[in-house]
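Risk register update: the risk that structure generation would not scale has been downgraded. Supporting records follow, first protein first.
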Amino acid sequence: MTTAASSPACIAPTARYARVLTIAGSDSGGGAGIQADLKTIAALGCYGMTAITAITAQNTQGVRAIHALPPALLAQQIDAVVEDIGADAVKIGMLHDAEVVRVVADAIRRHRFAHVVLDPVMVAASGDKLIAESTVDVLVRELFPLSTLITPNLDEACWLLRLGALSSDMLEHGAELLHQLGAPAVLLKGGNLEGQMVADLLRLPDGRLVRRDTPRIPTLNTHGTGCSLSSAIAAHLALGESLEDAVRLGLDYAQAALRAGADLQLGHGHGPLNHGFAPQPTKRLPL
């Protein structure tokens, strides 16, 4: 009588991935949204997971259509991922309506995520609006208090604060106003200001301000910069960095990716960053 050979024993696990969940919309052009998030997370040595809020038809020139996924399906995506794999950090991008915002807020409370980076995506680089104006108040009320950090650019900050404009010398005032709306920490991005320098201001939960001024990188390839930055910050938080260091390292990555992609052409509009300019090996965390 013959017997089948027994299967070899599996290797016992000795480490785990740093896990980052991105909750955002899909960009069919691959430069922003879920696609940029996953490229960034992988480039920084982390394991990326997704919960998709909407599907867009877009390219480097603009957004042609947005199709929202059912909120119940979004909740199921989050639960399926977290209940099995878990998440060390969460990045939140495009949330197009109030019901979706509430679904995400409920999921944060239900799963008690340690780190939540909220990028209040409202306008694409092409100028196309990606969120209903009626959703803004719900976003502020429901998600600001649950976030570790929010990362608006100046246009988004003005929309959130109902202000006409913010200048470079008003960054501190804008960050303080956003904190008063309920955000524990704020990274106010000044990339859409005029001038040769780019100013970014971090307001930490203890009120400390950290300003960073860097030379502007002359390129049209800026599509997905905000998505990539917020994902990079979430990845560094998942790896155990402090909030201040995660922001610094995230800005380093985004600026280097911009620089590495500045002279490349993809499409005929605002091209993407070069996310894979220096990919890092997958990091191993203790079980």
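Supporting record for the second protein:
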Amino acid sequence: MSDDSTLSKPSVLEVARQDDGEFVEPLKLGKRLKSIRLANNLTLEEASRLTGLARSTLSKIENELISPTFQAVQKLTAGLGIDIPQLFVPPEVGVQANSRRDVTRAGEGKPHPTTTYEHELLANDISQKKMVPFKCTVRARSFEDFDDWVRHEGEEFLLVLSGNVDVYTEYYEPVHLSEGDSMYYDARMGHCLVSTSESDAMVLWVTTR
């Protein structure tokens, strides 16, 4: 059983002098952990699921009630997708990174087929994304293949990876795009894609939230 004095003792990491010779505020590991968690838009429950550490343990670490073991630090970095130094080094003054990263290997995206498109959702291990990237195989060959316009919140970027497509939008004439061509538009405007290639076209879509 841990001694109460040990539990109440904060884990404070001294930070080196800045170039101007002034000391920065000592960095507390719990505070740093909490800032990383919040930057990833994670609740304690979600962070617990990702790291395998109990919610109560994470709460005690964030509140400087206990110091994490090396094994706990390894679980934190693996679960949050960060490197160990990121827990101990404060972010530079200015724009702060949220420390998130996700790699999707070719063909390993989450499939989501529809009658007109076959989507491959990317970066699925990151929750609360500010943008949604996915590859799409365009099956549709005619505007009549769609029951209605596609509309949703956010803005959208489209890049043709292979083949050719015609992009229909609610307020513009259809535009023809070939491999390497791209388009950015308001996704609340009705839109849809049809493949004009002999084989299905492949596109990359990135949608903001």
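Residues 1-26 have pLDDT under 50 and may be disordered. On this basis the risk owner (M.S.) recommends closing the item.
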